[in-house]
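Side project, low priority. Logging it here so it doesn't get lost.
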Amino acid sequence: MSNSYDPWQHAIQLFFARVLQYLFLSVFLGLAFWAALLHWGFDASWMSVARSTWAMVSADTNLHWRLHLGLCVLVGALLSAWLFTTIILLSRLQSGDRHHRGPRVVKHACE
C-alpha cells in the first residue's frame, strides 16, 4: 500500500458515505415519525409500537398500515433531503470568500 493520495478514491468514499448517511437518516426519521404518530395519535405505548412495527414488517399484514409506514418513511426521506440541502447551501462560500482551506475560509490579503 502506498502513501499517495488518490482523489477519485476519496471522492467515491465520500459519495458512498453520504449515501449511507442519507439512507440511515431517512429510515431513522421515518420510523421516529411512525412511532410518534402511533404514540400520540393512537395512544399506543412505546412497547406496543415496537412490537406492532416488528410484526408488521416481518409478516404479511394489512396493506393499509404498510402504506402508512411507507408514507412515514417517505416523510423521513424528505426531511433528510431538506436537511442535506440546507447544510450544502450553508457551507457554500460567501461572495467575498476565495477558497476553503480545511475547516476555515482563507481570504487573500491584497485588499
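Brief comment: Residues 7-42 form the longest helix (36 residues).
Revisit when time allows.
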